[in-house]
Each structure stands twice: as C-alpha cells, then as structure tokens.
Predict the structure of Branched-chain-amino-acid aminotransferase.
Amino acid sequence: MSALAFPHTETARRVSDAERARILTDPGFGLWYTDFMAHARWTIDEGWGASEIVPFGPLQLSPASAVLHYGQEVFEGLKAFRHADGSVWTFRPELNAERLQRSARRLALPELPVADFLTSLTALVAADEPWVPVPTGEQALYLRPFMFASEEFLGVRAAHVVDYYVIASPAGNYFPRGVQPLVVWIADQYSRAGAGGTGAAKCGGNYASSLLAKDEAAEHGADEVMFLDSETRSSIDELSGMNVFAITADDRILTPALTGSILEGVTRGSILQLAADRGLEPVEQRLVLSEVLDQISSGEITELFACGTAAVINPIGTLRAHGGSWTVGDGGSGETTLALREELTGIQYGRVADRHGWLTRLV
C-alpha cells in the first residue's frame, strides 16, 4: 500500500486573524480548535486510504456506529512548539505513533503506519501554522490524533470501517493555577484498570473510569487522584492521566514499573533519561503505598511529581486519603522536580540543546 499523502482542501471559514490573536493570548486548555483537521479511513477490504486535510467541523455518524456501542476507540496527545526562529517542532512523535499502534492492537483496531502518522501531523500543522502560539510562557499547539470504529453495525466484532483524525487546539497551562504543588487524593474505592485489561492502551474507557474518583478527589479539596493496583489496592499505578515519580534523599528517582495496567508515557521515558543524565539512579519497580507514605514521613522521599504531555511535570505537595494527610518535603515544589521540568521544556522549545535527537521539525 502506498503512503498516505493528506492533501489540503482550503476553506473560506478560517478564523479571522484578529479573533485568532485574541484566542492565543489566553487559550486555556482544550477550549479552542484550529481551522483544519487531518482525516484518513481504513476499510477491511482496502486498508488505509482517503487521506486529506479538511476544514474542522462536526462529524456525521450513524447512531449505529460501532464506537458508540462498544467503545472501540484510541487516541494520542502531543504538542507542536514554536521556536525563537519561527520554526515549529514536535517532541518524540515516533513514540506516540508506536503507542497508538499498540493501543490499536489492544482494541482490535487497524495499526496506522508510523510514517503516515508523522505525515498527518506535518500536513495538519502546515495548514494550521498560524495557530501555533509564539510562547510567552509555555503555550503550544496541542495535537490530538484519534481513531474509532465508524462502521454501522451492532454485532459484537472488530469493526470493518475505521476513521482516523487529528485535531489541534492551542493550549496554555493544563492546570489553571499553573505549576503549583498539587494536592492528590488516593482512591481506595475505584480502580483505573485491571490486569489483562486496557490500562496500557490510551483509550477513552480508561479515562471514563477515572471520572468518579476525580469527583471524589475534588470533594476532598484535591486537584488530582492517584489510583492503586486493582488486585490488592496496595501499590501505586498512576494518576488519572499522568505517570508519577518520587525522588529520594539518596538520589534515586522511583516510578511504578510498567505492569500492563500503566500507560507508557512519552514524558515518563524522557524523564528517566534526563534524570540519569543528572546522576540520579532511575528505579522502575512496584511502589507499595504504605512504604511510600512512610518514606515521605521519614524524609527519605523528598519530592513527588506527576508528568504527562499536557501538564509536562507538576510537583505534588500533599497526598490525602481517608486515613490522613502526608506533606511531601516542605509541601512546595522540589528543586530537582523543577530542574527536570526546566530542562525538558527547554529542549521542547529549542532553548536547550537536543542532545538525544528528540525533536522533529514540522514547519
């Protein structure tokens, strides 16, 4: 099969320069959308085809579309960054492409070739280049590739028609308060994912299952929720949409091992490399909650943070549960946490040398 091309269809419905400039001054997160989107369709008989860049707008779906009934859907998230010379880059997109393939495999969806994934990003950002913010802080263009079962069919089997899209949204800070220490609620009633389930896939169902726990966290004055393993409820998995790290007094950086119920975050992997570069010892292992809480209380764990594409790195200042509350360090933003964040964002925005070759130019 030949590679997808994603030709561009112009639209007269572009947002005006003045309105776009107004939006980009304070975009928030996930509130505004660009003029175009990428689209490709897969069928069981012909494979991937019908690729194009089209005007952003509503989708027409049959009420019998398989995704609405059986949740056969996966997605990704990454960003496009404006550099000082005006060029636009993205960060380790081949890892997002490979993860989308793994997620698709788990949800019985077709795998989009890595080259076609990268082409869809390049073509969309080229069409929407004016939407990439000139950063005054950490503004970027958030990219959301996703695919879903669009076949009109109510039988329970893998769909024979699947649509792939990429939409884009100018973004500022993920958390409204910016980079401030989070209060995190430890869920003891709800699980995010179970052994043999879809925890390692980036699919909507995993996030839907986190929403009640996030509401519970908010009721207890927390910003986020931490999930434990579904079998024993004794070890840490991840937050609702972020991986978690701990830094110890003896210069180790700890994170839960990938057990099949934890998403393999691109930011997570990058932090492990940057931490090792700084002389920290990366440790991927089972993090038993009771031991972590004891280590926080004793001062053995000095910093705790969450990470993901949207939020980058955000310190955790307090853990709360029905059994009490634990302050990490002095409850502030740890020095190493902020140093890792500064280096990572520096690479993404072109302010720090990309010594690992993680950046890909889009425009």
